[in-house]
Design a protein that fits this description.
This protein has a domain of about 100 residues: Ribosomal protein S7/S5 (Ribosomal Protein S7, Orthogonal Bundle). Helices cover about 55% and strands about 10% of the residues. It has 6 helices and 2 strands, in the order αααββααα. A hairpin with a 2-residue loop joins β1 and β2. α4 packs across α5.
């Protein structure tokens, strides 16, 4: 993080199919080596597979899955004197969204039960929609850690 100026936030254009900025961010995270068309196909096919499985609209499924993944609290290391404390802090909405998308893709990639990325992403979306899966476990783990360290909340500044 720069000490001089705040980072310039780039405007992300909405995607063509769902007209959603969040879906564009997901596509950009899935994209490798600048192959945006392939990333779009993966994401759109995953949405279709997941919505067929649950018989829910794709955007409703995606939004609910993201809400189930988004963390509310995280711990940050703060040095006070010679000691380092893990201080629980609330997360800004932009960071919540970024972490949720990052975890969704990370745990989709780690899946071994499916072969293709679209199947892996669809399965992770279904699990997140149902409140299960690796991304939701990561969020719960983060909340548990923040709860365990709430005694240090007074070091927040």
């Amino acid at each position: 993080m720069s000490r001089r100026n705040a980072a310039i936030v780039r405007e992300v254009l909405p995607d063509s199919k769902y007209n959603s900025v969040i879906v564009t961010k997901l596509i950009n995270q899935v994209m490798e080596d600048g192959k945006k068309g392939i990333a779009q196909n993966i994401v759109y096919d995953a949405f279709d597979l997941a919505s067929e499985k649950l018989s829910v609209k794709p955007m409703d499924l995606f939004n609910q899955a993201l809400e189930n993944i988004k963390p509310l609290l995280e711990t940050k290391a703060r040095r006070v004197g010679a000691a380092t404390y893990q201080v629980p802090m609330e997360i800004r909405p932009e960071r919540r969204q970024t972490l949720a998308i990052r975890w969704l893709i990370l745990f989709a990639q780690k899946r071994t039960s499916e072969r293709t990325m679209k199947n892996k992403l669809a399965a992770e979306l279904v699990d997140a929609y149902n409140g299960a899966g690796g991304a939701v476990k990561r969020r719960d783990e983060m909340h548990r850690q923040a709860e365990a360290n709430k005694a240090f909340a007074h070091y927040r500044w």
